[in-house]
## 1
Amino acid sequence: MRLLEYKKGPTGRDMFLIERPNGEQQWVLSYVLGGSFNEEKAAVKYRYEQKMAAANSSTGSGAFGTTHENLSGPGSSNQTMLLRSRADAREELKCICLQQHAQSTEDLMTCSLCNRKSHVRCVRAEGLSQTDMKEWQCPQCRILHMDPFNSGLELLMYVTTPRNMLAPSSQDGNLSMRFNIDPNQLKDWQAKKISLSVRCVGLGPRSMNVPKGPLWPKDVTASVNSYKDVFKILPPKYGHVRREVAGKEISDLIKPNSNTVTIQYKTEQPPMNAHVQPPRFMFGVVASEPKSKADILSIIRRPGIEECKLRDIDLVKRAIETFEALQTGDDIVIETRGDFEIINTRCPLSLCEMDTPVRGIECEHIQCYDADSYVDVNIRTRNVEKRWICPVCSKIVRPEDLIVDEFVLDAINSAKSVVGLDEYGGFLKRLKLDIQRGEWEVMPDEEAEGEGSDDEDDEQVSKRPRHTNDHNDSSEIVLD
């Protein structure tokens, strides 16, 4: 028996379209299937919610903003509102516990990407600051959007260790993920070269510094359908740190209709403190589409010149205000070079002239870097956790967070026509933004800003009077 589709019944109850071995299809309620199909039910429902989210966002109704008008049955208006609020709570909840705590008073966390809620205890998000809570991403989004070079299209199935979210983290065990793929869908994916892979992320408290990127247990052995030991994740060598891989591809082993992925894992031994548990892991089967360098560059946003101009002036003003606020009095005086309004046309990554100056939307500096060089560096970085780090402020800046500073680009092109190129055909200068006039000016080269060349300094030293032994002070040292 296979689960094909999901919908809400007339009374707001979950209903699933099943296909029996004889080919007959029928809509049934959730309790008819029993507990043996919990994972399949969660996967079918999750795919339905993803489709509804895409449809609602395209029509402007907001992510997952579905309202079930058919919930109003016989009874008072208060009872109707209560039924609707419960239905809305179920719609907003997308916890990895498969809604085991939907009716409890568990604290909830909201994902910054999909705006769905998860239980704090299930995702082990205790002790987060206000900033971290705003930027928090649910495990489903983390595993789906892990690698921009392999953009996740659909999360087919996922499973956690252990399945009971309230139980302690287990050190080893066996997990299985069963999912169905329509034959026509599989053919379409194969024609578009969409790959299927197994990914894994870690769930742990703030004190354990669990990375947002991929994290695998110490030892993993996976089997797909009837193929044993399809891939293995081995422990790191003694004295070394293992480089976590983004995913293990299983496209060639997937067949139409029913598929099963079995995972055998072992985690690190827990410490002596019984209150600290090893991280919990979440495995998932993801359909992803490979992205080229041109695809990555095409999603970078390009605001207008006026918008970039206002943003640059605001960045400089805020930087100056922050610096002046640190000058609390005569006791503490910070002496530093005021270069908040100065940018270098040399890219900090390639050390060449910037062709397309970009920076992150959340970056608070005016200095830019070249888009092409930034993508090249991340392509060559094999460690996924070390990718997409701003070379200026070290913030996480993914491709969708990049913006082209058209104001800086226009200033570079204008300065080239006035100043001209150097002897090597480049334009490696420094530009200073006048926040009062809103204009850029070309600064002199750094070499020309000194007090003089080395030869001039030597000449000045030679003109100084020399100390000799003619003085009566015998303690004087003569340096020739």
## 2
Amino acid sequence: MNPMGWAYRLSWRPRVTLVIDCFFDDSGKESDSSNRFVVMAGYATEDWGEFSKRWRALLLKYGLPAIHMKEIIGIAEEREWTRQQLNDLLQEFVAVITASSMVGFGVGVDVEAFRALPKDIRQRCGNVQLFCCSRILRRVKDHLGHGRFDDQLISVIFDQDFAYARPRVRLVEEVRQRDRWLADRLTMVAFGNSEHFYPLQAADLLAWETRRQLVNEATGNPSTPRWAQLMAVLPSGDYGYAAGEHWTKEWFDHEIPKLRGKANE
């Protein structure tokens, strides 16, 4: 027996780890009739090590258990931070993201446009959250399925929201059955606790800022400084993502023939 055999197995990990956080605040749920947008966003990278060290150092510096955008406003109020102090703190965390070798992925959906789709398409796509998940998987394939990533393995980790876990697992299995590329490379689908897995906190921040940007664009308000900082170092594309999508009514109308085929194409 190879005495290093067990050590090798324990130290092995996929060379590309995709971390996607699906983050919904109170105005971001599809079930909220007053909500306009739903977003799923996250990052892919080969090595989270240095990022996690720097992220944890900032959490310790400010005495924070985690960065959850839905909760950070309340923490700021409790500690009597000014808006500028909160913005400065968050921009330090954004700087850790932008200094890392990350690739951003995101899908934003206009909920009103989705609800206006023909019934047969909505039934095929499922709800908005499942549609976002399906499109994220497609964007991952399109981006990582070329060049140096083509022969590497992928793990997908969602934030630990078990209300969405079961339908997402079913969706991933359906996608694997009809997509050989993903079936061969998707080695793990998991649901992680973001308080212990820092990359999910970065995905949370990206999803929050993306949704806020969509609202700002719809209402004619300017982008936040954090949005500009996040986008400045990411590859060009819709919203600066390597593979970003914003599903408006016009885009849905254009893609209806494909949507009547397979929802993730």
